[in-house]
Amino acid sequence: MVCYKIxxxxxxxxxxxxxxxxxxxxxxxxxxxxxxxCARIFDEVHVVAFQNIEKPEWPFTMQERVQLILKSVAGxxxxxxxxxxxxxxxxxxxxxxxxxxxxxxxxxxxEYEADLEWAYKTIDSDLEVLYLRSSxxxxxxxxSVVREFAKYQLDLxxxxxxxxxxxxxxxxxxxxx
Length: 177
Prior knowledge:
The protein is an alpha/beta fold and 177 residues long. It has one domain (14-139): Rossmann fold. It is built from 7 helices and 5 strands, in the order αβαβαβαβαβαα. The protein has helices spanning 10-13, 29-41, 62-72, 88-94, 107-123, 143-151, 165-171, and strands at 15-22, 42-50, 79-84, 99-104, 128-133. The strands form 2 sheets. The chain has a 3-stranded parallel sheet, sandwiched between helices. Strand 4, helix 5 and strand 5 form a beta-alpha-beta unit. The longest helix has 17 residues, at 107-123.
């Protein structure tokens, strides 16, 4: 169906599927913000935990990350969570996903993601990369910040979803305070 309304209408603009790749170790409120925004735009959102060799595998295994993501997005029925050891572009192609979404907090994120976009496009020229700017509230938030706060037994309630706060604090040793 083609929409002839200037700019399209909300019904016609809605796209099929997207993939949001990341390490999600652990998933943060910033991740959930990007996921939620995509859930309003796309029919199906695939949030996939990948292992980045430059980042620590601790504190959560890949399967545990998937469970944390699922609990964090429980109110979003069009969000699917999974994990993979494959290339992001191969994973997306297998599922017929042509849009990859990345959240950007700052210029450093953009430079890093632009390099990755070149790699994605080299492997699969049909994969479109869409960047969403982080909401101002989450521009400095990362999983690394969560782990650092946990190291010093600081409150994580403004960093991770309430649905997973107990699991995250238990795993990171904050329940022994």
